[in-house]
Amino acid sequence: MVATASPMIRRNVLANVIGGASTIVLNLLIVPVQVRILGAEAYGLIGLIASLQVVFSVLDLGLATTVVREVARDTSPDRRDSRVLAQTVGTAYWITAFLLGGMLFAAADWIAQNWLRLEQLAPATARLGIQTLALSVALRWPTAFYGGVITGLEELTAQNVLKTVTTMIRLLGGLAVLLIARSALPAP
What we know:
This protein is mainly alpha-helical and 188 residues long. The protein has one domain. The protein has helices spanning 7-38, 40-57, 63-73, 80-106, 108-115, 123-140, 143-152, 156-180. Helix 1 (7-38) runs antiparallel to helix 2 (40-57), helix 1 (7-38) packs parallel to helix 8 (156-180) and helix 3 (63-73) runs parallel beside helix 7 (143-152).
């Protein structure tokens, strides 16, 4: 006897496949345009920030996974048993986001002058880029927490729609900013 997947499981699997595929497609379409506009050196700043985000994710210490488990296990009315945990962890995530973003923002000049080997990009432009990306790091840090809450609630369709929409806003918004500010960038 073969067990069939429930409609909710099928819907969640389909949502994950569509959400992941759309994020990949959006990145494959937009990133080459960004590299062409920015040039390799300026795009390298984005790579630096992406690398720092991976390093910073270690500071999660498994809290996002814990939130998923606890929210999913909670059968109390209105999930009140996991609500306090979610509020506490949410506060910790926002404090961490503020500290990481603030430290990166404050260290932007030092990073631009001592970490990077700039040839075409002015240090002031690199500093501004690092400061802008520091704000992005701070705003993106809590997404693991909120994603964990949504996953624990088994609202994967909503999570994937949200992920796809925020990816579109981030990529297309970034592209719009690049196109508008193109005259301020050095020629690649």
